[in-house]
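Customer escalation, tier 2.

The customer says the design service returned an amino acid string that "doesn't look like it belongs to this structure." They asked us to rerun it and document both sides in this ticket. The original structure tokens are below, unchanged.
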């Protein structure tokens, strides 16, 4: 009995229990969905309130404290190249699996009504100017960027602030010392918030099951199953090969961040663990400035799960409507998705908005087909978030290793328990 009580004190066990209870509550008491959403949103908002200041203070203390400005540029460029290669590979894998398994063949469009939700997403997607995405990185008002929690804008300002502080030399040491102290305070706040993460996971799952039920899974179960299998293949084949090349154990790394993985599963949001994983990677021996640059940037440019979902959803809808896409058309889809998927993190309801934007751009597949995926989309959002999270965690370790900005003795001791 004492052993069992000790086991239940472990955070990831509590989160897993919260997920199970959430599924049961949503199934047995669907009317609880509204209250469950409030619980989930409150937890995620508590995390979001520290994300912007944590990114700012981590970047500033990392670069200004011991950073080399040339290295900052090199790490940033290497990260962007890595992100582009890996997400393009994710797109191609999604297309190959969708063309091979053909989850949309034989699916009837009957029973799926073109409802107001599709019109709402279509209207929002038409308002997105993807050409303005890069100019949006520069905030017109830095206070507004922090208030909205715009990760890329905060990251951009943080780098400039760190450079400005570093140029002050010894005169800036007092400011730097104060920032490092503030960062410790924020992580203490984060530790308090993480103690209620099982409640957040419970709310997220209870809302998902209560609101959307299991009925849509029966209709589009093949699509969801194919998506999850593809996500697992991407993690345990592609990312595993990347880790093996850099002599890193993917399994040990996943074990190290298992609590975060379960929180992402319960909350359907990889953003919920952004500050936590930054702290864990730093404790594992990765240089603070590398973690501070790679992880937040990856949340906009390295969305592996989202890109797999987008490519698979487009091919699925083409198969449902009996549209035989040529190789040229599919290459065009890859090109469009390479652009549209990069803005996914900065848009509310990102997966659906980007999908609507892509269908509008290629003008081949009826956009009304989105009505078919709305019901099951929430059940795939957990998978997208988990693959996105794992992809960014691997990216930070790999880029730190490639730059020799990781204490491997500490990493093996903390992560691999050697």
């Amino acid at each position: 009995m004492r052993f069992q009580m000790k086991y239940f004190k472990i955070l990831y066990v509590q989160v897993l229990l919260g997920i199970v209870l959430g599924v049961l509550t949503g199934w047995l008491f669907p009317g609880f969905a509204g209250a469950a959403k409030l619980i989930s949103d409150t937890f995620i908002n508590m995390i979001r309130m520290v994300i912007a200041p944590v990114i700012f203070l981590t970047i500033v203390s990392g670069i200004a404290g011991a950073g080399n400005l040339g290295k900052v540029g090199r790490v940033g460029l290497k990260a962007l190249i890595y992100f582009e290669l890996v997400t393009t590979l994710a797109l191609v894998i999604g297309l190959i699996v969708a063309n091979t398994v053909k989850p949309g063949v034989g699916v009837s469009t009957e029973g799926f009504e073109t409802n107001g939700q599709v019109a709402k997403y279509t209207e929002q997607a038409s308002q997105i100017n993807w050409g303005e995405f890069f100019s949006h990185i520069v905030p017109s008002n830095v206070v507004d960027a922090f208030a909205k929690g715009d990760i890329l804008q905060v990251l951009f300002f943080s780098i400039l602030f760190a450079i400005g502080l570093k140029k002050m030399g010894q005169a800036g040491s007092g400011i730097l010392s104060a920032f490092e102290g503030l960062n410790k305070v924020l992580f203490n706040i984060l530790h308090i918030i993480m103690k209620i993460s099982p409640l957040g996971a419970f709310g997220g799952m209870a809302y998902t099951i209560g609101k959307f039920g299991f009925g849509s899974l029966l209709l589009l179960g093949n699509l969801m199953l194919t998506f999850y299998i593809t996500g697992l293949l991407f993690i345990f084949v592609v990312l595993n090969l990347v880790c093996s090349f850099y002599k890193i154990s993917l399994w040990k790394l996943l074990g190290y961040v298992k609590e975060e993985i379960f929180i992402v599963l319960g909350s359907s949001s990889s953003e919920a663990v952004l500050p936590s994983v930054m702290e864990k990677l730093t404790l594992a021996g990765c240089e603070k400035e590398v973690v501070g640059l790679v992880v937040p940037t990856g949340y906009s440019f390295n969305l592996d799960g989202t890109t797999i979902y987008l490519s698979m959803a487009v091919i699925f809808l083409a198969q449902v409507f009996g549209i035989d896409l040529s190789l040229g058309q599919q290459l065009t889809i890859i090109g469009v998705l390479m652009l549209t998927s990069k803005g996914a993190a900065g848009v509310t309801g990102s997966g659906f908005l980007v999908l609507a934007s892509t269908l509008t751009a290629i003008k081949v597949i009826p956009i009304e087909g989105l009505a078919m995926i709305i019901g099951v989309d929430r059940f795939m959002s957990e998978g997208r978030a988990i693959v996105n999270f794992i992809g960014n965690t691997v990216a930070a370790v790999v880029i730190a290793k490639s730059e020799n900005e990781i204490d491997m003795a500490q990493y093996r001791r903390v992560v691999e328990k050697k």
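Tier 2 assessment: The sequence is consistent with the input. Residues 2-414 form a domain with the Proton glutamate symport protein fold (CATH 1.10.3860.10). Confidence is low (pLDDT under 50) at residues 124-128, 345-349. Sent an explanation to the customer and offered a walkthrough call.
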